[in-house]
Amino acid sequence: MKNFEGLGLSPTLAQSLAHMKYIEPTPIQAQAIPLALQGHDIMGTAQTGTGKTAAFAIPLIEKLLTNPRGSALVLTPTRELGKQIMDIMHQLLGQKSTIRTAFIIGGESMGKQLSQLRARPRLIVGTPGRINDHLERGNMMLHDTDFLVLDETDRMLDMGFTIQLEKIFKYLPGHRQTLMFSATLPANILKLSEKYLRTPKRVSVGKTNVVAANIKQDVCRIEQDKKYNELINQLHDRSGSVIVFVKTKHGADKMAKKLNRDGFESDALHGDLRQSKRDNVMRSFRDMDFRVLIATDIAARGLDVPHIEHVINYDLPQVAEDFIHRMGRTARAGAEGSAISFVSAQDGTKWHAIERLLNPNAVNTKGETSRSGKNRRSRHRRSTNKQHFSDGHKMAA
């Protein structure tokens, strides 16, 4: 598959792809789309930022456009990712489409969603918790849902959605096409695919435990109480949009206020914000109304903002796999990006888990990552504290 024109897609979808300037498919799209169009179940894995959304969205829309019956359901772990998926779906459907859609996520009015569901949508995108709420209330019927997508499945399981997913499957017809996409492939994903997918085709692009090679990474060993001052230094040294990851919701709000006070236009994104506020924050960040986004791991996946040039891990993630997803917020669609991780003495266990994930065969006794048997290290120019230095190696590229 060298281009989308050779797929024989419906005129409406072909026109939408041309308008969106989708010409040459990414590797995951080239592998997955033809198989999905043939009706196969798919278990797909690829690094974040490689075009997984279009890999399932294109065959899904093609099926809706060419079949007058049946509906599709897309399950996603977060509201932000769900919104991005729905935006792409609407672009693919085209402005004059008569196919109704429903966006069913937590944090929004149940009444508004009930109105969407009463209109008998053929495409539903939502989060497992709110989808279950409507199913249990009898607001939603999935008896004709013959196309199911689980996106970022590993994240949904990490967030504790296993029970909700199991309940949703009970409402679905046994005969359906299921596409399951994930950035990583732990054992619980394989178990889920064995239970609910029918002889799936395995689609995998690249390794799932690596950071994109076009991201320049640094590691800053630093004392906990010196992190904020170093963050200021990093923001001064870097130009362009920055996403700073922190551990807690309160910490995100506190840091955004502090940075604004210190002259850096910032805002916070986390799960306690109302959906309208989250939408406003992301709209302003995409429009470059402010430069620094402070976020919890709610933004580690599914946040597609092409102009993010830098990722700063102020706090390390609780789950090692989220380190890879955080890195994937920069260097989107082949662009270059940079990242730095602050590692304090308290972070030793977390950092070692990250190193084991990235390069399990090349972690030496000091917990420093090697590449091809050689350590790559560089001093941080700004460092004035002998205990504060940078391991400027590229990890598991």
Top CATH class of the largest domain: Alpha Beta
And the CATH topology of the largest domain?
Rossmann fold
Number of helices: 14
The shape is globular
Category by helix and strand content: alpha/beta
N- and C-termini, Cα separation: 27 Å
Stretches with pLDDT under 50, minimum 5 residues: 363-397
The CATH level-2 architecture of the largest domain is identified as 3-Layer(aba) Sandwich
Order of helices and strands: HHEHEHEHEHEHHEHEEHEHEHEEHEHEEE
Total beta strand runs: 16
Main-sheet strand order equals 3-4-2-5-6-1-7
Average pLDDT score: 86
Please characterize this protein's 3D structure.
The structure is a single chain. 37% of the residues lie in helices and 19% in strands. It is of the alpha/beta class and 397 residues long. The chain has two domains: 4-205, P-loop containing nucleotide triphosphate hydrolases (Rossmann fold); 215-390, 3-Layer(aba) Sandwich (Rossmann fold). Helix 2 runs parallel beside helix 3.
Brief characterization of the structure:
The chain is an alpha/beta fold. The chain contains 14 helices and 16 strands. The protein has a seven-stranded parallel β-sheet with strand order 3-4-2-5-6-1-7, sandwiched between helices. It has a seven-stranded mixed β-sheet with strand order 10-11-9-12-13-8-16, with helices on both faces. The chain has a two-stranded antiparallel sheet with strand order 14-15.
Lay out the secondary structure.
Elements: H1 11-19, H2 27-37, E1 42-46, H3 52-66, E2 71-75, H4 79-93, E3 101-104, H5 110-118, E4 123-126, H6 128-136, E5 145-150, H7 153-158, H8 162-171, E6 177-182, H9 187-196, E7 201-205, E8 215-221, H10 227-237, E9 241-245, H11 249-261, E10 266-269, H12 275-286, E11 292-295, E12 308-313, H13 321-327, E13 337-343, H14 348-358, E14 370-371, E15 374-375, E16 389-390
Parallel strand pairs: 1-6, 1-7, 2-4, 2-5, 3-4, 5-6, 8-13, 9-11, 9-12, 10-11, 12-13
Antiparallel strand pairs: 8-16, 14-15
Helix pairs in contact: 2-3, 3-4, 6-8
